[in-house]
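INTERNAL AUDIT FORM
Audit reference: QA-55
Scope: verify that the stored structure record matches its stored sequence.
Auditor: D.O.
Record contents follow.
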Amino acid sequence: MRKDYQYVDDATSICLTTTEEGDNQVVGVLINDEHLDLLVSVQSEYFTVKGTITEWYEQYKEQYEEQVGVSTPTSLEAFKECLMNDWMTVHKVIWD
């Protein structure tokens, strides 16, 4: 990889984020605790991800435990549902 590409790769990450619909779910509390915990945590913290959706979930679980100090109540199925329902997506973050 070229050095300038490597610099960009090192200075950026893909992070989970909520969509407008996901934000509306949180505000209206229209969802169960498992989904709600996931969406609220993604709104408040940076969770970096790489690879497949299952790997995203594993990375989310690991980072959640590091940041919150307890295991996430969110299952893989709830994680996938948040993505499929367009409540959550990813965005590119540039670390400054």
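Auditor finding: record pair retrieved intact. The helical segments are 3-11, 20-28, 33-44, 53-68, 76-84.
Action required: none
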